[in-house]
Design brief:
Length: about 130
């Protein structure tokens, strides 16, 4: 039981001393496909001095630890959401603009099959590139 308490305390101490933030990662397809969005990763920043409650004890230490824990969890949830939404937008844009991706191939296949049936393709891309 004592070992579990020590392990849990160490895990909590490591967790509450962290700040999570999104970081832009260079994707080789950004230049090739002229993408405007970027791929993101979730990074963790740990203060070099560690986490301190400035000598607090009793209720003060508990409040200090609770606030630090809430802060870490909040930064993880907010930053994780930003990364998730940003990477989803990046993936959708990449699927639409890169010609070697599955969605672009399917779109081209669909257009060709419709043209065989007599449909005409209207291209508005020039209007949006200005």
């Amino acid at each position: 039981m004592y070992l579990k308490s020590v392990m849990l305390s160490c895990f909590i101490a490591i967790l509450i001393s962290c700040t999570f933030y999104p970081k832009v990662v260079h994707d080789a397809d950004n230049d090739r496909c002229q993408l405007s969005s970027n791929k993101l990763t979730l990074e963790v920043s740990v203060p070099s001095g560690g986490f301190h409650c400035n000598g607090a004890s009793g209720d003060g230490a508990a409040i200090c630890l609770a606030v630090a824990g809430i802060y870490s969890v909040t930064t993880a949830v907010v930053s994780g959401s930003i990364v998730l939404i940003g990477n989803t937008a990046h993936w959708i844009e990449k699927q639409g603009k890169c010609t070697d991706d599955r969605l672009a191939r399917e779109k081209d296949r669909h257009i060709k099959s419709m043209q065989k049936k007599g449909a005409q393709v209207i291209d508005y891309t020039d209007e949006y590139e200005e």
